[in-house]
Amino acid sequence: MKVLVIGPGGREHAIVRSLLRDPNVTEVHAAPGNAGMAEIVPTHAIDANDPAAVTALALKLDSDLVVVGPEAPLAAGVADALRAAGIAVFGPSKDAAQLEASKAFAKTVMAEAQVPTAMARVATNADEAADALDAFGAPYVVKDDGLAAGKGVVVTDDRTQALAHAQSCFDAGGTVVIEEFLDGPEVSLFVLADGHTVMPLAPAQDFKRIYDGDEGPNTGGMGAYSPLEWVPENLVAEVIERVAAPTIDEMARRGTPFVGVLYCGLALTKRGMRVIEFNARFGDPETQAVLARLKTPLGGVLMAAAKGQLSECEELRWSAETAVAVVLASENYPDTPRTGEKIRGVKKANRLDGVHVLHAGTATDESGNTISAGGRVLAVVGLGSDLVEARERAYAGIEQISLEGGQYRTDIGAKAARGEITVAGTATER
């Protein structure tokens, strides 16, 4: 099987790495890829958001399967163009990708599917935003309705700041979704879907804020770990029953079947499990941690999903190890990241026991040096017998790497390793 992976980031590097471990996958290509992917597979410099360019490349390579990584190509209709050309694709149509591309649409689907989620209002101007903020009270949660690469959400006790974020979205021609604040620990669960059948991956937890202690602005994600020892035993079954299956059924009922991965962002609140958000693709950096533990060959599962045959797949098999992914970001991320800096020490990190490095925002300069080319530059993944050892290995790896002005969090998975995460009552109370 020949597979083409679309996207430039750490998530795609993790997917490529997993596909290369599948004995039935004979060839993997990436477009546009990054410096890390270019070391292990052929890469192709195309615009990943251009449906015609992606389709032409897939046809030229005689690809059996195309895996679309990021949200922007999905929202641009890349999967639709590939399907129209008769190519199997793992990734939802433009219409189905609205589950991520529009927070308001996702709320409508959740309401119709009776999925437990935060109460919310859509605001189109400052007066509506002010009314909604006052109705829900602090902490205020304001979300840009459109795609914002994980950075369009403001959670604050400062009403003025909340209104300012809403106004910036209005000024850009958008709308906002204002929600009640959900307390409790957060969980990420990826669910593969083929339009009617769903299959869960292992839960993970990611860290959105830039600084230790969950301080500072939201980012695309600064690290993640999996599995989660502290979640209720029946959480995954409950998410399938109350969230994923009803949502996939509702999308099919609407005539827009969802094929790909439904990312369920969850809060385990005092009142039970609630959906914070949906994404229409693998989350980054959770994918880096989750796929590091997957023992089932990935290519066959993704092809089964693309062909509507997930029900024929066996349950996924997982390593008993724990994985921790720590993101190294550029100076001044998430604002205007400094790029073009040399990255040193990646080979040293990769030589450590239980450590591998996944590139995200990297490129190669004219002299052949690996340089930073984005906000999140790479992720160091540590695998260990438990969370303590996995953390030690991930941080031993990141200490080998130097990037001028680089920054990373030192507390990825730390609270869980100390046994400090608790779920109020039971996460499954109705």
Characteristic key phrases:
globular; 31% helix; 4-stranded parallel β-sheet; 5-stranded antiparallel β-sheet; 430 residues; Dna Ligase, domain 1; alpha+beta; Rossmann fold
Description:
This protein is 31% helix and 26% strand. The chain is an alpha+beta fold and 430 residues long. Among the domains are: 2-93, Rossmann fold; 121-179, 2-Layer Sandwich (Dna Ligase, domain 1), CATH 3.30.1490.20. It has a five-stranded antiparallel beta sheet with strand order 11-14-17-22-19. The protein has a four-stranded parallel beta sheet with strand order 2-1-3-4, with helices on both faces. Helix 1 (10-20) runs parallel beside helix 11 (286-293), helix 3 (51-60) crosses helix 5 (78-84) and helix 7 crosses helix 10. The chain starts with a strand and ends in a 13-residue tail after the last helix.
By CATH, the topology of the domain at 2-93 is Rossmann fold
- CATH class call of the domain at 2-93: Alpha Beta
The strand line-up of the biggest sheet is 11-14-17-22-19
Q: What is the 3D shape?
A: globular
Work out the helix count.
15
Largest sheet: 5 strands, antiparallel
- Strand content of the residues, in percent? 25-35%
Low-pLDDT residue intervals, each spanning 5 or more residues:
426-430
Give the total of beta strands.
23
Assign the CATH architecture of the domain at 2-93.
3-Layer(aba) Sandwich
Based on secondary structure, the structural category is: alpha+beta
Alpha carbon gyration radius:
20 Å
Mean pLDDT score, rounded? 94
N- to C-terminal distance = 44 Å
- Helical percentage: 25-40%
